[in-house]
Design brief:
The chain has 130 residues and is mostly helical. It has helices spanning 13-47, 55-88, 97-104, 107-129, and strands at 2-4, 10-12. The protein has one domain (11-129).
Length: 130
């Protein structure tokens, strides 16, 4: 089935659903990767002891925490935007219960929450290192 989105472009609805599913899977993957990486880091911080006295080790861990988290936030934000854009292209989505719920809480709420939660985790880890 083809649909006509807001820009007048026709696209197969099954293809749009597949793209939305793919981006949702991407979100689940990045959340799991982020969680496992930071859980492993917590174990390292808990058992490192005197190994964290070396400033090079601390710098490497801090860089990894900050840069890895920035990458995860950017990837997650992009995937959320793609998913929301794809859902808006699905015929009848805005009238569905899920579409009405998402209209009440726009994506910006989730984007801000994502940044705040990751920032708090990063701050706690950096404080644990230094």
């Amino acid at each position: 089935m083809c649909l006509n989105n807001k820009r007048g472009v026709f696209m197969d609805q099954d293809k749009v659903l597949d793209m939305v599913r793919t981006r949702a899977a991407d979100i689940r993957t990045i959340v799991m990767s982020f969680t496992l990486a930071h859980a492993a880091l917590s174990i390292v911080l808990g058992f490192a002891g005197a190994g964290l006295q070396d400033s090079g080790i601390r710098l490497a861990l801090a860089a990894w925490i900050i840069l890895g988290s920035l990458w995860c936030v950017g990837f997650m934000d992009d995937a959320m935007q793609d998913m929301m854009a794809g859902m808006s292209d699905i015929d009848g989505f805005a009238e569905s219960s899920m579409g009405q719920r998402l209209a009440k809480q726009p994506i910006i709420v989730f984007r801000i929450a994502n940044v705040v939660i990751v920032a708090l985790i990063v701050i706690a880890e950096i404080m644990a290192i230094y």
